[in-house]
């Protein structure tokens, strides 16, 4: 009779043997654990503070800290004089560094932020509602008026119209071309480029201090005023030829006031919305007299070195702004409705 071969011991067998065998020290561990739980249940909880007085002092210190933080927050709100809205980051830096308006005195926000500033299919510039809502919340938080400071060009005028509709009580500050033009060519802009970033600190501060609300119902100026001043077409258009012509005079008045190049209807609306008779008279008085040269039109805020086409000389070097002026027209200039661009008459 053959012997039966012994069965091979497996890991399962070892585990069953371990389960069956009494564990060494188990009873002692259970006993100590039970004793510890009993002690915890019978002893009081050791608090972080040794006495009630120490706890009261800690709570009082915490209250004082929270009250100090709240006072600092309210002080920041009271110190904020206005919420200034500009177009881009360079304008923010100009308002803060040149005009000396720090974080405590004003909140400066740009509409050109992560796609918030866009051009509609009809070529008008606008700000998305999300950015408008953010500006509204900022004004409510600091209980401060909104002050709009945009470039002296077509885009700036269109953006103002959007703010008039959304924020009727907003204040509008203006910088004329004579105060906000680049004096020299730079890496980013040609000489004559118009923008808040090019203005001096005194000019920015003056513009902000003289900001005024828009009044859509005001009718101080009429088309007859523009005709008398040589700013709109009339029976005596030829009489203004020696003074630069109606179109050039109207452009210079718009650039002086800070609303950019306008046609007659647009200029009349801007005058009634924002400007006094004294300011209008100052702009008229600043126009060239008979026989004086007409200042050339400067570039608008979009005609920077990155977007404006450069000419190439035969030797391969780039042209300057003066060379582009030899074209006889500004390819980025505003063209009033109903008027053909230069070269397409």
Short description, anyone?
The chain is of the alpha/beta class and 345 residues long.
Could you describe the 3D structure shown?
The strands form 2 sheets. The protein has a 5-stranded mixed sheet with strand order 2-1-5-6-7, with helices on both faces. Strands 3-4 form a two-stranded antiparallel ribbon. β1 (82-86), α4 and β2 form a beta-alpha-beta unit. The model is unreliable at 15-25, 41-46 and 301-327 (pLDDT under 50). The relative contact order is 0.08. 42% of the residues lie in helices and 7% in strands. The longest helix has 28 residues, at 52-79. It has one domain (72-325): Dna Topoisomerase Vi A Subunit, Chain: A, domain 2, CATH 3.40.1360.10. It is of the alpha/beta class.
C-alpha end-to-end distance: 123 Å
Q: Number of DSSP strands?
A: 7
Strand order of the largest sheet: 2-1-5-6-7
The succession of helices and strands, N to C, reads: HHHEHEEEHEHEHEHHHHH
Ranges where pLDDT stays below 50 over 5 or more residues in a row are 15-25, 41-46, 301-327
| Domain module count | 1
Look at the structure and give the CATH class: Alpha Beta
Q: State mean pLDDT (0 to 100 scale).
A: 76
Sheet/helix structural class: alpha/beta
Instruction: Kindly report the CATH topology.
Output: Dna Topoisomerase Vi A Subunit, Chain: A, domain 2
- Our Rg estimate from Cα atoms comes to 37 Å
Shape assignment: elongated
Q: What is the helix tally?
A: 12
Oligomer: single chain
The largest sheet is: 5 strands, mixed
- Roughly what percent helix? 40-55%
What is the correct CATH architecture? 3-Layer(aba) Sandwich
The percentage of residues in β strands lies in 5-15%
């Amino acid at each position: 009779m053959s012997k039966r071969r012994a069965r091979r011991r497996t890991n399962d067998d070892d585990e069953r043997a371990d389960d069956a065998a009494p564990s060494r020290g188990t009873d002692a561990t259970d006993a100590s654990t039970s004793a510890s739980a009993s002690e915890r249940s019978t002893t009081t909880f050791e608090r972080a503070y040794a006495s009630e007085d120490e706890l009261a002092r800690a709570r009082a210190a915490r209250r004082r800290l929270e009250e100090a933080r709240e006072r600092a927050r309210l002080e920041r709100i009271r110190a904020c004089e206005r919420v200034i809205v500009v177009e881009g980051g360079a304008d923010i830096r100009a308002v803060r560094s040149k005009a000396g308006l720090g974080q405590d005195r004003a909140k400066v926000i740009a509409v050109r932020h992560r796609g918030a500033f866009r051009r509609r299919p009809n070529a008008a510039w606008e700000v998305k509602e999300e950015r408008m809502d953010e500006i509204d919340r900022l004004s409510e938080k600091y209980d401060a008026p909104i002050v709009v400071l945009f470039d002296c060009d077509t885009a700036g005028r269109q953006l103002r119209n959007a703010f008039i509709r959304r924020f009727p009580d907003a204040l509008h500050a203006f910088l004329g071309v004579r105060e906000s033009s680049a004096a020299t060519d730079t890496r980013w802009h040609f000489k004559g480029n118009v923008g808040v970033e090019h203005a001096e600190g005194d000019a920015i501060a003056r513009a902000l201090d003289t900001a005024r609300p828009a009044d859509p119902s005001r009718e101080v100026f009429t088309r007859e005023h523009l005709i008398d001043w040589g700013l709109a077409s009339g029976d005596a258009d030829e009489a203004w030829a020696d003074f630069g012509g109606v179109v050039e005079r109207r452009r210079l008045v718009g650039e002086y006031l800070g609303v950019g190049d306008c046609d007659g209807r647009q200029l009349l609306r801007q005058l009634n919305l924002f400007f006094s008779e004294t300011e209008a008279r100052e702009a008229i008085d600043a126009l060239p007299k008979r026989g004086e040269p007409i200042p050339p039109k400067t570039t608008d805020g979009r005609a920077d070195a990155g977007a404006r086409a450069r000419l190439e000389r035969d030797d391969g070097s780039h042209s300057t702004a003066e060379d582009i002026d030899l074209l006889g027209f500004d390819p980025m200039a505003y063209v009033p409705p109903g008027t053909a661009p230069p070269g397409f008459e």
